[in-house]
Amino acid sequence: MLKHILTLGIVLSTVVHFSLVRAGLASEGSPCSLANNHLDPATHKFLTDCDDRSFCFVDANTNSTGGSTVNLTQNDNASGICAKKRCRSDEFPFGFAPGEQLPPQCGTGFFCPDSGSGCTPINKPGMSCELNRDAQCSQPPGSHDLASPLNSNGSICLRSQCMYANITLGLQCILESTLYAGYGTNGMPYSITILRDNCRSPRLYCDQSSNLCERTKEIGQPCQNDKECLSTSCGVANICVHIPGQVVIIKPWEYWLTSLAIMGVMTSICTFLTLSHKRHRLARSYELLEYHHEQIR
Ligand SMILES: *[C@@H]1O[C@H](CO)[C@@H](O)[C@H](O)[C@H]1NC(C)=O
Ligand SMILES: *[C@@H]1O[C@H](CO)[C@@H](O)[C@H](O)[C@H]1NC(C)=O
Ligand SMILES: *[C@@H]1O[C@H](CO)[C@@H](O)[C@H](O)[C@H]1NC(C)=O
Ligand SMILES: *[C@@H]1O[C@H](CO)[C@@H](O)[C@H](O)[C@H]1NC(C)=O
Ligand SMILES: *[C@@H]1O[C@H](CO)[C@@H](O)[C@H](O)[C@H]1NC(C)=O
User: Is the peptide bond before 121 cis (omega within 30 degrees of 0)?
Assistant: First the structure.
């Protein structure tokens, strides 16, 4: 998990880095083209002609594309103008000055698309969604047992389609592999492949060769990818390992055993000291007794 958070952190920092460099330059009121809405091939960040504060708005009355109800799959060449974002999905979005009024966040049952074009109702399974935006998909009934850190309350967005992460052991699953590329802090290029699937996580994962849901592996079992391990860490020797630096969880029996051992050692030290003191005193009293006898004689 920690490793995933770290990699996500690296990915995000790269996205930040790229967004500073690569975001559209057109500011509010400038013309833009919907055709230029795309994901950056390396970082997969959503990019448009417009800057971080605005989105490419096409008037729904004059052109069929619609600006507020963005169709995530279409890519018409309709021209529009950059308009101020109507919603935000991040607590602190880029591009806004400190103290400036931010676009609102969406309420429950709605999501803010990456473009920021306005709150949109959450999608049912089979409907479209944006890369990694699991929260754009409606949660399954009884999402409790499907929810995991690898999905959003049991829903997942794979290959631009909403679905439930509900596939059980031995059944066919959908595996999405995304390559993220960027530059590390030392300027060296690097890449990470993130695998996502619709198996019931974290107990199951989608096997790359069979495309069937299989049981995640315990510590010490052979692995090819982090996702195959319950610990989410496949070590250098291709064996599932604990994540380095992970908090060690002590089981109740280990506490009991340790406490008992400490008590045992303390009791035996006390007993030993008491006995040796007694023996010492006995020896001394015999000595005194002998002395007295000697004096009396
Ligand atoms: C999105 O656009 C595509 C092609 O333009 C169309 O086939 C699809 O039905 C549209 N989806 C929605 C939800 O409007
Ligand atoms: C969009 O424009 C590009 C060139 O700018 C053209 O090749 C493409 O056919 C156009 N697509 C549509 C749907 O008009
Ligand atoms: C609608 O879009 C077309 C290009 O697809 C553009 O030529 C036309 O000017 C647009 N209409 C309006 C009213 O903006
Ligand atoms: C998951 O569901 C709980 C309760 O139904 C809700 O409070 C929470 O916000 C949901 N999380 C996401 C990421 O949608
Ligand atoms: C999983 O969810 C889909 C809806 O996305 C549903 O059609 C299917 O029956 C579910 N499968 C299982 C095994 O619950």
Answer: no
Residue 198 near ligand 5, beta carbon < 6 Å? no
Question: Amino acid letter at 259?
Answer: S
Residue-averaged pLDDT of the chain:
85
Residues 197 and 167: their CA atoms lie apart, in Å, by 9
Runs of H (alpha helix) within the chain: 2-22, 252-296
DSSP sequence for 133-148: -GGGBPPPTTGGGT--
Report the C-alpha gap between 234 and 216 in whole angstroms.
11
- Torsion-angle region of 66 (φ positive above 0: left; ψ -120 to 50: alpha; else: beta): left
pLDDT (average), residues 78-105: 89
Q: What is the mean pLDDT of residues 176-192?
A: 89
C-alpha of residue 153 to centroid of ligand 4, in Å: 6
Pocket test for ligand 1, best of 58, 68, 73 (most atoms within 8 A of CB): 73
Residue 255: how many CB atoms within 10 A of its CB? Answer: 10
Which residue has the least CA distance to atom 2 on ligand 1? 74
Q: Nearest CA to 206 among 263, 237, 165?
A: 165
| Residue 115 Cβ < 6 Å to ligand 5 | no
Q: Retrieve residue 155's tokens.
A: 């829903």
Ligand 5 center from residue 158 Cα (angstroms): 15
The burial of 295, by beta-carbon neighbours within 10 Å (0-12 exposed, 13-18 middle, 19 or more buried), is given as: exposed
pLDDT of residue 27: 86
pLDDT in tens, 221-265: 999 989 899 988 998 899 999 887 777 788 899 999 999 999 999
Per-residue model confidence as pLDDT tens digits over 157-179: 999 999 999 999 999 999 999 99
